[in-house]
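Protocol step 4 of 5: obtain the predicted structure for the target chain.
Materials: sequence only (see below). No template structures provided, no constraints applied. The aim of this step is simply to have a reference model before the mutagenesis design in step 5. Sequence pasted as it appears in the construct record:
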Amino acid sequence: MDISEINSPYLQKHIETLKNENEDLKKAFECSYDGIWICDSEGVTLSINKAIERITGLKKEEVTGRNMIELVEKGIFDQSATLKALEEKNTVTIMQKVISGISTIVTANPIFDQSGNIKKVISNVRDITELIQLREQLQKLEEEKNKYQSELNSLLHHIEEVNDIVLKSPNMKKVIEKVMQVAKYDTTVVLLGESGTGKEVMAQLIHDSSPRKEKGEFIRVNCSAIPAELLESEMFGYESGAFTGAKKSGKPGLIELAHDGTLFLDEIGELPLNIQAKFLRAIQEKEIMRLGGVTPIKVNFRIIAATNRNLNEMVASGAFREDLFYRLHVVPVTIPPLRSRKDDIPKLIESFTNTFNKYYHTEKCFSPEAIRMLIDYPWPGNVRELKNIVERMFVTTSSDTIYQKDLPDFLLSHAKPGASYKNGSLKEQLAQYERELLQNTLRVSTTTYEAAALLGIDQSTVVRKMKKYQLSL
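Step 4 output (structure tokens):
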């Protein structure tokens, strides 16, 4: 090639284009957010971009010309993707730790010449330290969640054992979780729900789960059971000679006895208006005056009220003081009726059965069919009514097993027509009955072995039929 060819406009333009492309490649190399590390076929560092310096804290002059073998031996890296790519003659991706403590993910790509020999290795480096930290934080949060869930389950189990509260239905579990949350705060709680739902048991649970358990007593006042003419003296107490028949020594009232503890006002809706006014003053002033007394007595008590009446309607009709209503209605907790927590009925029956077996020294149990009928009944009297029926069956049934036929007539009259069967062939009806029988038995069993014992079949048969009918404990 002579000098005229070198100086030709076409060649000069081509050279200029190559220069511009080379500059663009250099800029792209330096501007890349990911680190780029280039080594020769021996693993010697040819160049790194600014992202490598930012990610690893290493300077270009510190590593250029140095072999990756040396950098690993010096502890700059724990391992090298470049060396692995040279060894395997293939693309390699590894997790790499830098001496600065940074964690990176490195992908090394070997570049081959026309003869198939490696001439360079280009590695892409990305900082994943933050990603690892986030993963560790997520794992820690998951562990804490599992820990708290385990503690909650343990607490709920403890509540079931100690307080005889059944917690199988989701809506009842939500009630207990809310109650346990407010129990630790010294706030007023009003328990709402039908008669017999267990409001007193819930009030006792709140007291037992609060700091006041160690300081004072749980005092229950049934506002509907005490005659109106005696209610004031019972609640506020009296001094000697306050009225005819009064004790010479006087008597502290129930409010006074609840000092540092919890005052449970059951059936608060039955509280007479004149007592409501005095009670409101006791709440506001944190003091009471005994009947016939002249010296106020300081009291510090927590209030838990309960009612099966609609207090809003009573306020509207003037039967309940509005100012007292708002004093009491701080944290309302509605306890669901038994008919809306059918899942709890088998466990309640089991709990009451265990209680009465111990009390009466018996070994009675309910048949699955009897349990099915008890589940279907609407229970207007709620848990209290169920407990009474279970006890009635214990004292009126001679056999150890209480069958459907042994149940009271009013329960039998509520049985759904054809509840155990559906239209279909004999095989279909038998399958339906088998499914319902197994389902009812599982409701009162804690293990498949217990269900098998109740049904008089092998445990493996129970498991197989549970799978067949898609049932679970």
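Step 4 remarks: The two ends are 92 Å apart (CA to CA). Confidence is low (pLDDT under 50) at residues 418-423.
Proceed to step 5.
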